[in-house]
Amino acid sequence: MAAPPETVNRAAELRDLIRYHDERYYGHDEPEIADAEYDDLLNELRTIEAEYSELVVDDSPTQRPGAAGIPTPFSEVRHLQPMLSLDNAFSRDDLVAWGERIGRLVTESVEFVGEPKLDGLAISLLYEGGRLVRGATRGNGETGEDVTANVLTINDLPKRLSGTRIPDTLEVRGEVFMPLASFEALNRRQAEAEGRLFANPRNAAAGALRQIDARVTASRNLSLYCYQPGVVAGGPKLTSHHQTLEWISELGLPVNPEIERLADLDAVFAFCQRMETNRHSLGYEIDGAVVKVDRLSQRAEMGQTSRAPRWAIAFKFPPEEKTTRLKNIMVSIGRTGRATPFAILEPVFVGGSTVQMATLHNPDEVARKDVRVGDIVIVRKAGDVIPEVAGPVLSQRKRGARKWKFPTTCPCELAQPLVQLEGEVDRRCVSADCPMQREQKIIYFASRGAMDIEGLGEERVRQLLNAGLAQDAGDVYAVTQEQLVALERTGEISARKLISAIEVSKSQPLIRVIVALGIRHAGPTAAAALNRAFPDLDAIMHATPEQLTAVDGVGPVIAQSLEAWFSVPTNQALIEKLRAAGVNFAAPVVDAPDVEQTLTGKTFVLTGGLEHFTREQAEAQITARGAKVTSSVSKKTSYVLVGENPGSKLGKAEQLGVTQLNEDAFQHLLEHGPEEPSEE
Ligand code: IVH
Q1: Which fold has domain 76-316?
Q2: Integer distance in angstroms from the first to the last C-alpha of the chain?
Q3: Tens of pLDDT along 174-207?
Q4: Any ligand 1 atom below 6 A from CB of 291
Q5: What fold is seen in the domain 5-63?
């Protein structure tokens, strides 16, 4: 089921909030919130993304390597030259305005190169002496993840460069993507194995590239096109981008054959339109066109901002729209009983996938759009991901088409009334016995952001309910391997795997257990607050409203919701089943810091590589002693730790007269703390 609009909005809000606090923390050295509060935001976003994979956008803070608290199995690498982003144009006017802006920065007329904007993942490849030595994801643009073992499995990618003009060093950027044929084959295999289906080729490519086991990457058939060099040493003298691409291609690197030289902005716009018309006959997904200034000397004059070069722009296609017949409008019931209307459509291929269902959000939306069963409707992918019905094509409405009425009863077999609670747009089924709610509750309990029980997805939960093996999440812990094997399409291995995943989930931390209960308003942020304030679940259960609201981060709405939830007998029964199964109810005991806080109040900036520490180890040593690590040097910086090949931060430190430490001095400081000024 597609994410409800408030969840879509909340996810966007969380992404913005996290980015804002990142900027305060890393960019300005002035965090406004505690680390734990930051982690709560990140966790809340992760929980939403676990439930609605379509909300996992590429630039989500959860997808960033090394984002606070996110362990990454790949080591961090620094790009020789930062990987910049691109500014966007959405119309011909935007393109013309860009053309005029850059035209003013140079004297001669500008020629362009047009390229398809591949919808995959940016990658940076490093060739030394003609051999591929490293492949890294874009990451935050400065540093990415080392995925060399995985990129080596990409067939199109040469391990050695060829031709007569091989450079000493070549850093080249490109896009890794999954061709549509590979994507469809992968999802077919996933469906057969009852695994999770990938929402689109980009997510599938991202997943494939970040596999721990490179053999899995190899089986996913990724492709690659290169489009831009970074640092080059010992290469030929080139004066234009098209020459550069020819050279890259001569080296054996794959270059997109759709790329064209374009004489002026009219040709540029015609190229963008051509790309849009042909986008579905390419065999891979594109979400726009990239337009680049051809002459390299002009690029140098135009320069770049901190984010993007001025000499290139991404022309983004508008969200795709198609028309199809609305076969029916139905209502789904969520875990809290909320009734969400959705459209059943004549299948239509839009935005790179076949759509048969689309959300209609809530009763007000259906009324506002006035879509009627039998109408020809316009379907589009909002943000090119979530299909939605934009509205009816009124000129094609059949006479006699009736206005749709929101059902008054729940679509489940109990058919209890749907009620509209005061102050809410939504209607809800408030029956505690509603099987549709039961199903959604168990799915949510097992989801990645909650108890994370792999293999207990929608299909499996439905099977357990239909077989009478589970009424609620507590029953899941009593299911046996034999019972699973007796179910349809279930082999020994998948049964054993599921039993073991269920077993493992018993020791999930309390915070996840609270989230998994699915109590309204008690999401990850509230769960984290409760986890900090109470020793165990029983203490939360028996807390008075006053004790609950006294917790920082728990307001009266959450307190009331908790109290109401714990007072329902079926919920109490669920808690007892979980307890009997041995699910962890205890909050973690916080260890007292055993490292002396010798560097409290100090601020460090790190530049260059160290011999005895990775960057993370150095940072951990610093923070363990009560100091902070920031990314930029300012007058407030106490020390700059200078390693091999330091960057521009060293110059800044010299300019501001900040104390510099080499690795020896750093180790001395860790062991002995700062020297006290001598009192003579
Ligand atoms: S050039 C400094 N060319 O679009 C120039 N990017 O929105 C950097 N992309 O991060 C990028 N196709 O992942 C360039 N032909 C193309 C591209 C392309 C796709 C992606 C790339 C970049 C993103 C920016």
Answers
A1: D-amino Acid Aminotransferase; Chain A, domain 1 (3.30.470)
A2: 74
A3: 999 999 999 989 888 877 776 666 767 887 898 8
A4: no
A5: Helix Hairpins (1.10.287)
